[in-house]
Amino acid sequence: MTYKNIPFGTINKFNVVIEIPKQSKNKYEYDEDLDAIKLDWVFTGGFHFPFDYGYIPETRGGDGDHLDAFIFSSHPIAMGTIVECRAIGMIELLDREEEDNKILAVPLVDPEYKTYQKLSDLTFDYKTIFEEFFKELGIQKNKTMEIKGFRDKQVADSVLEMAHKNYVKT
Question: CA-CA to 91 of 20 to 30 Å: which in 43, 55, 155, 162?
Answer without folding.
Answer: 43
